[in-house]
Amino acid sequence: MGSLMNQSHSRRHISSTLFLAIASICAMSTGCSTMTSITGNALPVEPAAVSSPNGSYTVEMHSNFGAPKQYKGTLDGSTTVSDALTNAGAIKKHRAMDVEILRVVEHQGKSRGLRMPVNYETRLGGPKPEQDYALLDGDRVVVKPKESSSIVKMISTVAGMGR
After folding, report:
1. Which residues lie closer than 8 Å to 46 by C-beta, 6 or more apart?
2. Residue 50 — φ and ψ, nearest 5°?
3. Does domain 56-158 have CATH number 2.40.240?
4. Which residues form the signal peptide (predicted)?
5. What is the phi/psi pair of residue 144, to 5°?
6. Which end of the chain has fewer CB atoms surrounding its CB within 10 Å, N or C?
7. Exposed, middle or buried, 110 (CB in 10 Å: 0-12/13-18/19+)?
8. Cβ of 57: how many Cβ atoms within 10 Å?
C-alpha cells in the first residue's frame, strides 16, 4: 500500500512540475506583449530620460466653484504623482478626485501632447501603484473633484458650473 501511495504522489509531483515549467516558458516568451497600453495615447512614447533635479511640475486643482488653483513644485529626481498630490494639498482638499498628467513629448522631431489618466483610489489614499508615475520636467498634473453625489452635480449645474 505504501509503494502505491508513493507512486501516486510521485506522478502528481511530476505533473505539477511539468505544468509549472510549461507555464513559465509561456510567460517568459510573451514578455511585455501581453501588457495593454493606456487608452487614448496617439503615439508610442519611448522611455524618457531621468528628469533633472532642477526641473519643475505644476498641479492644477479645480473645484466645483471658482477658478482653478496652481501649485508649482520642484522635482527631486524621484517625484511621483502621489508626492505631487500630497505637496499640493490635493489629498486633504479632495476625498475623491479625477487625476491626469499632461505631458509634452518629442516624437519624430515634433512636440505633441500626451494625456495620461491616473486612477486615484480613495481606499488606497493615492493612485494605483502601477499608475503612480514619476514626474518629468514640465509635467502638469490636473486634479478635478470627482462628482460623487447628485447634490454636487445639481449645485454645480445651478451655479452655472455644470460640466
Report:
1. none
2. -60, 135
3. yes
4. 1-29
5. -125, 140
6. N
7. exposed
8. 25
With residue 40 as reference, give the H or E element that holds it. none
Residue with cell 509634452: 104
User: pLDDT by residue for the chain (163 residues), tens digit each?
Assistant: 555 555 555 666 666 665 555 655 544 444 433 333 344 444 333 334 444 556 999 999 998 888 999 999 999 888 999 999 999 998 888 778 899 999 999 989 999 999 999 998 888 888 999 999 999 999 999 999 887 555 656 666 676 655 4
User: Dihedral angle at the C-alpha atoms of 51, 54, 60, 61, nearest 10 degrees?
Assistant: 110
Full-model pTM: 0.58
Strand partners, 66: none
